[in-house]
Design goal:
Structural class: alpha+beta
Order of helices and strands: EEEEEEEEEHHEHHEHHHHHHHH
Number of domains: 2
Radius of gyration: 20 Å
Strand order of the largest sheet: 2-9-4-7-10-11
Distance between the termini: 40 Å
CATH topology of the largest domain: Jelly Rolls
Oligomer: single chain
Helix content: 40-55%
CATH architecture of the largest domain: Sandwich
């Protein structure tokens, strides 16, 4: 795909970084990338997060660090669209940290984030720094940003995208049609989708579409759909009392047995076990 290039450096030319406090009814599907590092904290909301070839659910407390030129988007979806979505977003060039020898550890940490990091167990002090960031003066914000990054560099983290690198050159070669198909799959994953029909939508033969889609996403069409459907299913499991068979049907699976098998493969636990684990 050709994600949209976001020109962050042209937004606030008088600042060395950009800080955004987002409050909106829903996070839209805007597949994009930028040369700047990005740190995103979800203060409130729930949906699906796309980072490179990773598809995961997000909810309140989600904290993700993205490396340079890593395509991404957070998307509100499903039964929680009436809930106000809130996020804190930091965007800055890696040179902001690289200019200081004293911050070499942080600089190395940011370079390691080329495939994205999610932080499963965030120190409350880091959350307090993020949530109080907007109340600081500009120069204190800069010091606070360094402090946040320094603390995160020693926090437990997990990689997101399986891709090893994302250069501007490789991203520019991706086809813009991919954005169209990803939006379509995101909005229609609960429906029965046949390869031939999806290929026709993109004016491709099924064989060419399969090769093109795998190259652009790192997944086959059915694997991508299954991942998306399973992430949708996890939201139904934790936010509704619908039984497993109903959730299987709601998310696009024809048979509960197939749904159970795919869910266990993706999550290493049964749907019912996932629900019980969450509620405990």
């Amino acid at each position: 795909m050709k994600p949209e290039l976001e020109h962050i450096s042209e937004v606030n030319k008088g600042q060395s970084f950009q800080f955004l406090q987002l409050t909106m009814p829903a996070f839209p599907h805007i597949w994009h990338y930028h040369p700047e590092i990005e740190l995103t904290f979800i203060q409130n909301g729930r949906g699906i997060r796309y980072v490179g070839d990773d598809i995961s659910t997000f909810e309140k407390g989600d904290l993700v660090l993205l490396g340079e030129n890593l395509p991404h988007t957070w998307v509100t979806q499903g039964e929680n669209t009436g809930e106000t979505q809130k996020a804190f977003v930091f965007q800055f060039p890696i040179s902001l940290v690289g200019a200081f020898p004293e911050l070499r550890q942080v600089s190395d940490f940011l370079k390691e984030a080329k495939s994205g990091f999610v932080f499963p167990d965030i120190d409350p002090e880091v959350i307090a720094l993020i949530c109080g960031f907007g109340k600081l003066s500009p120069h204190r914000q800069l010091f606070s940003l360094f402090d946040i990054l320094d603390q995160l560099s020693s926090q437990p983290r997990m990689s997101l995208s399986a891709g090893s690198s994302h250069s501007l050159a490789s991203i520019e070669k991706e086809q813009s049609r991919m954005d169209r198909i990803k939006r379509f799959l995101h909005e229609n994953s609960q429906n029965q989708l046949r390869l031939g029909d999806v290929a026709d939508l993109m004016h491709m033969t099924p064989t060419y579409f399969c090769r093109w889609f795998k190259q652009g996403t790192g997944h086959t069409l059915i694997t991508y759909l299954n991942k998306l459907r399973i992430e949708n299913a996890t939201r139904y499991l934790v936010s509704t009392d619908s039984n497993v068979s109903e959730i299987a049907f709601l998310t696009g699976f024809e048979h509960a047995t197939h749904f159970n098998r795919i869910f266990r493969k993706e999550k290493n636990i049964s749907p019912q076990g996932y629900r019980q684990q969450f509620r405990k």
